[in-house]
């Protein structure tokens, strides 16, 4: 039985549910993918074929397909058609360890590369002045990179540091933390805030996912052993590729929970 026939068989099974047609079709396609009846990289029948065989409008088909594209189940390639999205191997990262992206991926045996989006000295923004303790006359070093592991873009990192700490952003090699370590300015702890976000057009294009899909927005403030703030980073991660894991421990009576 072809992939199209599998989808239509499931659509007939769900036709008694009373749900809107586009939801029935979306569920049928998603079930076919989840069961492995159509696999990563397989082409979906055209809108015209699905509409004709299922006896529904192309508008209904398009709405179901677009929902699945936004959900990361399907991908559309201009001029080629619609395909089942490749399965993403999820990366699990501990929240109890402060490491660089390069170090973290290297431990997993993954090849890592970065695409520089920005490296330069700028007048600080109000947020950067407040977090980094800068005056309006000082400069901030900004470095922004698209982080890629095993040829899959995973994250966009945008870091800000005082120009006195990083006077030449262009001199950074593959790791910011390695560069900071050579001057004794590598952070030893950080406070990290993670929130859900929907990726905007620009970030989605860089991460090669549909605009509006779920992502993770991470704001990190890193400190030296002296307690001085050294780094202010705002990053965006693919929601389909990352799991952040934290270990929780039960404290005894009177014990204080420390960050």
Automatic annotation (TrEMBL):
SMART domains: HTH_GNTR, UTRA. Keywords: DNA-binding, Transcription, Transcription regulation. Residues 19-87 form the HTH gntR-type domain. CDD domains: WHTH_GntR. One of its GO terms (molecular function) is DNA-binding transcription factor activity. Pfam families: GntR, UTRA. GO terms for biological process: negative regulation of DNA-templated transcription. InterPro entries: Bact_HTH_transcr_reg, Chorismate_lyase_/UTRA_dom_sf, Tscrpt_reg_HTH_GntR, UTRA, WH-like_DNA-bd_sf, WH_DNA-bd_sf. This is GntR family transcriptional regulator.
């Amino acid at each position: 039985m072809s992939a199209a026939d599998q989808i239509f068989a499931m659509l007939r099974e769900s036709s008694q549910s009373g749900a809107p047609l586009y939801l029935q079709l979306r569920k049928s396609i998603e079930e076919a993918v989840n069961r492995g009846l159509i696999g990563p990289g397989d082409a979906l029948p055209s809108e015209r074929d699905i509409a004709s065989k299922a006896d529904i409008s192309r508008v209904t088909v398009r709405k179901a397909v677009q929902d699945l594209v936004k959900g990361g189940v399907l991908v559309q390639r201009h001029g080629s058609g619609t395909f089942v999205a490749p399965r993403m191997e999820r990366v699990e990262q501990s929240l109890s360890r402060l490491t660089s992206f390069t170090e973290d991926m290297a431990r997993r045996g993954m090849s890592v590369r970065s695409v520089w989006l920005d490296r330069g000295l700028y007048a600080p923004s109000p947020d950067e002045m407040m977090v980094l303790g800068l005056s309006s006359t000082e400069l901030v070093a900004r470095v922004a990179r698209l982080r890629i592991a095993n040829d899959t873009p995973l994250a966009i990192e945008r870091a800000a540091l005082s120009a006195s700490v990083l006077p030449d952003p262009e001199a950074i090699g593959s790791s910011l933390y390695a560069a900071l370590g050579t001057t004794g300015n590598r952070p030893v702890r950080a406070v990290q805030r993670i929130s859900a976000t929907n990726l905007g057009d620009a970030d989605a294009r860089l991460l090669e996912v549909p605009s509006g899909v779920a992502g993770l927005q991470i704001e990190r403030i890193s400190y030296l052993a002296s307690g001085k703030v050294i780094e202010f980073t705002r990053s965006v991660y693919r929601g389909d590729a990352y799991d952040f894991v934290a270990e929780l421990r039960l404290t005894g009576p009177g014990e204080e929970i420390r960050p």
